[in-house]
Amino acid sequence: MKEKIVSTLTLFGSAGTLICCVLPIVVSLIAGGAAVSAMVSAFPWLIPISQNKGWVFGVAGTLITFNTFLLFRKQKNGNCQIKRGSSCKTRSQWSKVILCFSIGIYLIGVFFAYLLVPIINILGA
Prior knowledge:
Layout: H1 2-31, H2 33-42, H3 46-51, H4 53-77, H5 85-123
Helix pairs in contact: 1-2, 1-4, 1-5, 4-5
């Protein structure tokens, strides 16, 4: 049960990085600054989330790390609470898919939040 809760929190935590940083940057790249200001006026809660992006990324990274630890510790021990044979394998596969999806979302968020602007500045665009 604890693995399921951590897995769900990991997915939502990494999705928070998309809301925090990727969404405003992509909207700005595609539609310009006016679209971002319209988006921020429609969703004012984006500002505090973006201002605290260090916390958002820290919590999401901690959850992903903890989820990875739980997933691979469980496989190492070979424990399964479900008595049906294929159910454990299916649950483990879905947990891996959710974990990989969360890591992918997190890395996209890290790129847009911390790497894109320095790369653009270096290239002089």
